Amino acid sequence: MPSLAEVGQLVVNGVMAGTILAVPAIGLTAIYAVLRFPNFALASHATIGAFAGYVANAKLGLPLLPSVAMAFVVAGGVGVVSDETVLKRFRPAGYVTTAIASIALTIALENVLRFIFGNELRGYDLPIQRDFRIGAIRVGPQQLDNLAIAGVAMAALFGFLAFTRTGKAMRAVADNPMLAAIKGIDADTIARVVNFVGMGLAGLGGMLIGLDTTIDPLTGFRSILSVFAAAVVGGLGSIPGALVGALTVGVGEELCLLFLSPDYRSAVGFVAILLVLTLRPRGILGQRAF
Amino acid sequence: MPQTPREPRRRFLASAGALALGGLAPALVRAQGEALQLGVLTPLTGAGGFDGPRMAKAMQAVIDEVNGNGGLLGRKIVLVVEDGQTNPEAAVRAARKLIDVTKVPAIMGTWASAVTSAVAPLCWESKTFLTTVSGADSITKLPHQGYLIRTQPNNHLQAGKHAEFIASMGVKRCFMMSIQAPFAQPTQSRATEVLKEKGSQMVGTLIYDKDKTTYRSEVDQALRANPDLIYLNGYAPDVTILLRDLYRAGYGGKRFAQSYAVTTKVLDSLPHEVTEGVITVQPSADVTSPAYELAKKRLGVAEPDSYETQATDWASLVSLAIAKAKTPTGTGIRDSVRSICQGSGQKVYSAVEGLKLLAQGKDINYEGASGPCDFTEIGDITDCKFRYNKVENGKFVLLKVA
Predict the structure, then answer these.
(1) Cβ contacts (< 8 Å) between B246 and chain A: which residues?
(2) What's the rounded Cα separation, in Å, for the pair A275 and A125?
(3) How high is the ipTM of this complex?
């Protein structure tokens, strides 16, 4: 019988893993809400963010927060350019074609990174701190930093969507593109904004993953299925849903260790997708953007 | 593996062939068509492209030495080199050529397990002897009727040796964390068995999923067993995360991993305090053997590696087995190979030395540069050396070769 401390520890680990997963998941779902296709190029943009942060931190010697900002801006910028030059042309052909094109794009971008940086593992120039204990629960300072960064990024996004004119326009396009067009909202501008924000979040998420591990050209690709699972479980297209979905997948994957061997951990996210889609096809929070 | 366009490949083969023949030109002239041809099928391109050419060169060096001392059965030996391309389909075509056209009695040098698995059936069906470095346990379990030997330690031997070393360090409680891979379960079972025999204990094992961003919960599970050594049996990306998570968790015990999981690049990517004291292991040439010294001189290389020494041993074993059988056939090699490399005969460390004694009618026991070259019934080596390194201040320091 597992002890209460053991369960508590798993929940804490799950919340931390889930929060990091939530950042790129929100990016994925935001892009889906507005542009109506699952953009798998998120994987390479997460890696681009991780490498942009690496260059800022390990090469230029910047501290953590400016490096994180760099990850967001560079990945967001590349997101806008790659959408304008590649994916935009595929959109009239339907979402399946665009989604497949996004897979091709992600592999191409990954190989550009491989060409520039090579295949080897790289780590940020940050000390690794020992964990501390609160009662019987072990908590890592790095995880707390990540939690805070993810929390602030998500709060900023919610603020942007709720209170700014552009944010409201984004929600309008997500809710009803035709009505938004009639009201004079320029869909192209909104597409650029959502790509910048969505891929920026992916880049930020990639860097957060890298802070906890090391980075290589496959950093984003390794996590994309879990990110996708989180977004689908929460309701693809729902931004709060992505957060709920990520936490569900994160905590679920950890709690399964109570009765399953760790090699089945990834399966939990996908069993969750099957269950949610069977019982609640639109995801936990449905598909309303906000 | 990327497809190489046809033309460059032909050009490459032509130049590789010219290179091989160039080295042999004097031998060919003297042999005047009576040369004894042996097949070499190493990857000269593809993933094995780094090891293959060096292996071919090591075999050529042994054959040159044998030819310089009167050849074999009164004939000169010629190596016919084909490129396996680290690709089963290309390797099968090359093997067919060696078997059907050149009619070699032996093929030496398959590298990737997938290639060996594809080529081996052609060999045993045509009674051609095959020597390989492929490590997958399944290879020697094929129904090869004795037409195959491998000088690379298989998984079973490696796990047993690692466990012996761990026990010899005075470790009482070992925990093994393995990535989900075909070798995970067999390694855990064998290590558990040997640790118990040596008075140590495997206090727990787990198999983890690859591609996770954190292994905190897995680390917690391992630490609950209170181990004084954790064997991290995975690949570089996941072992890096495990090392970080173990450090964060404040684990102060020993950590042990394969050298391909903790590379110099991994050491560069992690702070020194995280990797301090990690012990790594890899199969090693027998650096203490006189055969190793001879290989060094023959190759003009300061430290021949495991692959070069294994290739040295194949060329020697095949030459000696043919001399013993007195006939250059695959079946002859199969039937006599164990009588020249194991048993109570006089120890020899090179093909030339062995050929002289065989000519005098004496029994020999070839001891190789890669190891003692004693084989089980199914063609696996019974023993081999391993190199153990320890990480100190972000650098590898040799602990021992044993």
Answers:
(1) none
(2) 42
(3) 0.85
